[in-house]
Design brief:
Belongs to the GMC oxidoreductase family. This protein is α+β, with helices and mostly antiparallel strands. It has 13 helices and 17 strands. It is 28% helix and 17% strand. A hairpin with a 5-residue loop joins β4 and β5.
Length: 494
């Protein structure tokens, strides 16, 4: 078997926070409704959610007694699971032990691990970490390197897919590729071509191959294989919009770097047994919430109507308790800070991916669309007000450093978010969205087959219909496991 592996985006081994949780039952029901396929209902997807992971409970030898973790073993295949290791760090951030008091005072309830189809509530979340040494359990280490040594899988390193090739019957028969920019050659496909290039480059590859909006393809003299207006459209993301920053009475996450001895101890603990502050990816305590009535009352009718239409278990905002060490201005004297970070997980705004050349070595144009809609702007302001309610109950917090006590009106808060708060968290999805047919703006069917052609699938977060209400790692693993089973079933006529 020959497979062209195409990866796009940032240095994911470094930038990914390793956070892993599942979406909600209502979120999956929404996908089942969009596709008309009950295979996407929670009960049918749950085996695929379990399949990738092996769970190791937190080690009480290393974690503080006030850093107790709640989890549900029914969310895992016990005792033998999949190749990706899921566990908890051998170190809890000091600020996190104050999380329960702040969230509960604001009306949150304790969650049970964020893997059982319910996100509403607070708690510690699991990470894709190898428990023995606290290194990242990645797709490369868990799947690729293991498979490459014992199967006929052939990997082309530094290989870029330039365009997909089709026969006269519109069947994908291969991929035109180049390695390290050298002379292109063709990888032939015996059965199917699978695109897994991410929410930016999967639609780009389809478009330069003749699949996408006709007008755009003709603009760059690309022969139209399948006129699909939805390719590159419908970009959903869950933007990180900053948060409320306070001084704290506990060490920040880089406090161990302040003296030679603490630095040496941290390094030795990590090298010896994967423990200490270096074993923690950073933020380890969070909550998901739907806006309470006191915050929705001041929203516009359109925002309230949108929120009412969401499934009852689909949260609006993720609130992350973070320890930080951040200098906001030259006058600031506080180095240890704590943050209630906010992420909009029910955003309405949409962006798009468009090409600016028939040559896909030319970067596509990405319009991310954050906070375009009035609804998202109102939710962003409400999220900050809710974050302040949480912060008020955290006894380790001191003065509010940012946005600052003088930032109180909706306009002031929104201006702060737009200029200093908002940023990427890389949860983009839906640019090759799944759906019933192309007329709805969908690009692939419920088994990831691209409309209008044969032998071509898109299996990555771009073929979700919208971004998940939380972090996308666990959701994308489950999505891929389900679709890979569809590929296997088709190969064996099952």
């Amino acid at each position: 078997m020959t497979v062209a592996v195409v990866e796009a985006g940032s240095f994911y081994e470094i930038s990914n926070g390793n956070y892993s949780q599942m979406a909600t039952k209502g979120w999956y029901a929404a996908i089942a409704n969009i596709t008309g396929d009950p295979a996407y209902l929670w009960d049918n997807m749950f085996p695929f959610m379990k399949k990738s992971f092996t769970f190791t409970p937190p080690n009480p030898k290393f974690r503080a007694k006030n850093a107790t973790v709640g989890y549900d073993l029914s969310a895992f295949n016990i005792p033998v699971g999949g190749p990706v290791q899921l566990s908890y760090p051998k170190y809890a951030q000091p600020i996190s032990s104050f999380g329960a008091e702040g969230y509960s005072a604001a009306g949150f309830k304790e969650a049970n691990g964020f893997l059982d189809g319910n996100l509403l509530g607070y708690g510690y979340w699991p990470f894709t970490l190898r428990p023995e040494d606290s290194t990242r359990s990645s797709t490369e280490s868990a799947f690729l390197s293991q498979t490459a040594t014992r199967t006929s899988l052939k990997i082309y390193q530094s290989c870029m897919a330039r365009n997909i090739l089709f026969d006269g019957d519109k069947r994908a028969v291969g991929v035109n590729v180049t390695v390290a920019g050298r002379r292109p050659f063709i990888l032939h496909a015996r059965k199917e071509v699978i695109v897994s290039s991410g929410f930016i480059h999967s639609p780009q590859l389809l478009m330069v191959s003749g699949i996408g909006p006709r007008a755009m393809l003709e603009q760059y003299n690309i022969p139209v294989i399948s006129d699909l207006p939805g390719v590159g459209q419908n970009l959903h993301d869950t933007p990180a919009i900053g948060g409320v920053i306070h001084s704290t009475s506990v060490p920040g996450r880089s406090a161990w770097t302040r003296s030679a001895s603490s630095f040496e101890n941290a390094v030795q603990n990590y090298l010896n047994n994967g423990s200490g502050p270096l074993s923690s990816p950073a933020s380890d305590f969070a909550a998901w919430d739907k806006f309470p009535a006191n915050l929705t009352a001041g929203m516009s009718r359109s925002t309230r109507d949108f929120l009412k239409k969401l499934p009852s278990d689909w949260p609006n905002v993720e609130y992350v308790l973070q320890a930080s060490e951040r200098i906001l201005s030259a006058e600031q004297t506080v180095s240890d800070t704590g943050v209630i970070g906010t992420i909009l997980v029910s955003a309405t705004s949409k962006g798009n991916i468009t090409i600016q050349s028939a040559d896909n070595t030319v970067a596509p144009l990405v319009y991310i669309g954050w906070l375009d809609s009035k609804e998202d702007q109102e939710m962003a302001v409400a999220a900050y007000r809710r974050a302040r309610e949480i912060a008020a109950g955290i006894t380790a917090f001191g003065e509010e450093i940012a946005p600052g006590a003088n930032v109180t009106t909706d306009a002031q808060i929104l201006e702060y978010i737009k200029t200093k708060g908002i940023g990427a968290i890389h949860h983009g999805a839906a640019t090759c969205a799944v759906g019933r047919d192309a007329s709805s703006g969908a690009v692939v069917d419920s088994k990831a087959n691209v409309f209008g052609v044969k032998g071509l699938r898109v299996i990555d977060a771009s073929s979700l219909p919208f971004s998940a209400p939380g972090h996308t790692q666990g959701v994308t693993y489950a999505h891929a496991e389900k679709l890979v089973q569809d590929v296997i079933d088709a190969a064996y006529d099952m």
